[in-house]
Amino acid sequence: MFKKITLLLILLLAAALLLSGCGDTDPAEDAAEALSPRHGGVLRNAYYAPTNLDPAFLGTIPDDHIGRQWSDFLVYIDEENQPDINRSVAEHWESDDTAKVWTFKLREGILFHDGKEMTSIDVKFTFDRLRDPDVGAATVGLYENIEEITAPDEYTVVFRLAESNVDFLLDLGDYHALIMDADNENFATNWNGTGPFMIERYEPEDRIIFTRNPNYWMTDDDGYPLPYLDGLEFIFLSDSSAQVEALRGGQVDYLLYLPTEFVPLLEEDPDFVVYQKPSNLSYVLRMRSDRAPADDVRVRQALKAGTDRAAILEAAVGGLGTTGRDTPIGPAYGDFYLDVPEPERDVERAKELLAEAGYPDGLDIVLTTQEVSPVPAIATIWQEQMKEIGVNVEIQLVPSEVYYGADDMWLEADFAITDWAPRPSPQPYLAQAYMCDAPWNESHWCDPELDELARAAGSELDYEERVRLYHEIQEVFIERGPVIIPFFVNNLWGAHVSLKNLQPTSAVGTSLDLRTVYFEQ
Amino acid sequence: MALYLLRRLGFIFLTLLLASIIIFSITQFLPGDVAQMVLGQFATEVAIENLREELGLNLPLHIQYLNWAAGFITGDWGDSLVSRMPVQPMVMQRLGNSAMLAGVAIMIYVPLGIALGVIAALKRDRYPDQAITAVSMAFVGLPEFVTGLLLIAIFAIGLGWLPANSSIDPGSNFVQAFPYLILPAITVSLTGLGYIARMTRSGTIDVLDTDYIRAAELKGLPAAQVLLRHVLRNALLPTVTVVAMGIGWLLGGLIVTETVFGYPGLGRLLVYGIQRRDLPLIQAGSMIVVAVYSLSNLAADIIYGLLNPRIRLGR
């Protein structure tokens, strides 16, 4: 409480200072160079090294974190997973009644870092490249539904889809979809984007240094140019304790994807603030439903009934999240989320179900577990819980590279825990992992009713009706679905107190918007 | 002597050649390939095939190796397969950083280790000897991430005297880098100290037991003179070898320390290269480490000869 009051006071004071500071001069009258007291400072961050900086092949968290600093999105997805036109390079968008033809009007005068103006040619080029099977980006599947992209004039782009897609704006906000310069000939080493920061120097496995883009198109509410920061410096540290020590030692100003075990340490230190926001990042314990034993719905129900979700949440990530309901649609999706009470653990019921399924003496299973925090912790606690219902869980620990490696262990194993990153809407989870012919249907579950509901939800234009469909989908999952989702973990950031205006997001943790972040003088 | 040197340098060249072939072969057996690593788990087959073609990974293995070797000898070390940037400046900059750290560490642990070893030998089997042995061995046994994090907790976070993180700016010179080098250098020194102290102790004890030392003492030379002129000169021979071996370790093997402190040294770069199957980077980095090992061994042999004329080489 005290903290909140102090924060409020600081904010009021800052506001008062700002108001008194710019009361007598109108910033709009000043030249473009006029900067506010918020301007200045270099933001430093420590995280793992990136793998690829070519937007079409971004794959890791650091890849994404770097990408969104030096270019922009046609459609920017905000902190609540909604399209935000004010932060998009499109200034207007509309679709026809069938959600098949989408027309975008671009802002005029947006410049690439090399001074060239961004036009519809570049936008068309960007998405053509991302859907080109010969380029082979990870987005080819996502944009398969695009039939044709046209650029009728310099500032208009039209997307024609084969089938209706009400979530098309969200698809366009995919993290690979950074606006590219159509004249660029080498995407691996030429980072000519339109973004708020320009890459000044990239030292592989050491750091990447950005400077402020003085021609950036966005302004703040007072008309001052964004971004506020003079530059960014991302230092690559391959050890999470080293990252945290760098923050505590003052060598960096903020950390993203702060590991949960460091949260208490930073929270008790008055120099730092831990920001958190519920996300849909989850560790999905999926049960292979096309062969014994989990092909029997009673086995799946028994394992669910024997699981104590709150205990797993507490022990695995220190309670920094919300318990799941065994459906991939979490509370981060607002209305779409079906808010039912957390299922009570019922050991007797679980035993009964197992007996009915033909396992009165219990069951031996192997749980394939990635060696990446907090998956082994989840597996160990669940193993204990299962013991009480007579299920003997053998934990098979494998490195992540092997789990997702050439043999596709994650798609093959009978029982396994897969980490699923946040998506801007529930639909990608259904299309990618749960519909019968989903490419990553890791649980090999095929439920005609779910397929029908999911298809309907994906093309339903009426919001209320979509909400109803998603709720019904969650009921199916709760009743007979192939997954146990113990919890959704919060996105976590650690930052120095002098860093202001951080807006925690429930999308991927990298999408924290650095354009409006500033240091308190 | 010149002939001897020439022969030794020839052997070093052969060592490098052999090492490059071995490293190249090993990387072929690593699971996964660089195209998959660079494009990520979800890239399509087409994209991976395109990249393999572009990077020349579809050529026969011996052609790939010869291409690399021809380039390396003529000074073109190739581009990193991951970042597509030239490997040479990357490796050389890291070598410079590693050399700075190695220099500071050697300045700390070699004199200290020798001093402790001599004291232990002089007070053999008495309290100071036992204390020195126990403490230095304990530090040898402690992993660097433990000593490193302890030092950070005490001197950086607790007392605030030194930076907690040593990710120095690229191109920093020694003066700029110095404050960032102290904690990692101490961490490394605590590991290296024990070896030097042990070697010096046993070398000194051996020499102290010889007749010529007894003779020197009996003819009435001051104890300090006996120690410095007669004991150390002979006792330090094995220590020289340990120091020389240590240089190779300091330049390419400090992966844990570099990771804990975020110090951009050569060891970390090599691990990064290996994780991503970045062949030109792995090759160039390991060639440098092998060369440093070989050259410091050569230097050790030469110093050996200077200290001990009986085994002076080349005759």
Task: List its salient traits.
heterodimer, A: 521 residues, alpha+beta, Dipeptide-binding Protein, domain 1, Dipeptide-binding Protein, domain 3, eight-stranded mixed sheet, four-stranded mixed sheet, 15 helices, 20 strands, 22% strand, disordered N terminus, B: 315 residues, mainly alpha, MetI-like fold, 2 domains, 77% helix, 0% strand, globular
Largest β sheet strand count, sense and barrel closure of chain B: none
Mean pLDDT of chain B equals: 86
CATH topology annotation of the largest domain in chain B? MetI-like fold
Structural class of chain B: mainly alpha
Shape of chain A: globular
Second rung of CATH, namely the architecture of the largest domain in chain B: Orthogonal Bundle
Please give the alpha-carbon distance between the first and last residues of chain B: 7 Å
Can you walk me through this structure?
The complex is a heterodimer of chains A (521) and B (315). Chain A has helices at 2-22, 61-70, 120-131, 168-172, 240-248, 263-267, 297-305, 309-317, 347-356, 375-388, 400-403, 409-412, 427-434, 448-459, 463-480; strands at 42-47, 76-77, 83-84, 90-95, 101-106, 146-153, 156-161, 197-203, 207-212, 231-236, 254-256, 272-287, 321-323, 363-370, 391-398, 415-420, 483-484, 487-496, 499-500, 518-519. Chain A has 521 residues and is an alpha+beta fold. Among the domains of chain A are: 71-172, Dipeptide-binding Protein, Domain 1 (Dipeptide-binding Protein, domain 1, Alpha-Beta Complex), CATH 3.90.76; 281-489, Roll (Dipeptide-binding Protein, domain 3), CATH 3.10.105. In chain A, the strands form five sheets. In chain A, strands 11, 12, 13, 14, 15, 16, 17 and 18 form an eight-stranded mixed β-sheet that branches. A four-stranded mixed β-sheet of chain A has the order 1-10-9-8. Chain A is globular, with a radius of gyration of 24 Å. With 315 residues, chain B is mostly helical. Chain B has 14 helices and no strands. The interface between A and B is large, with 43 and 41 residues.
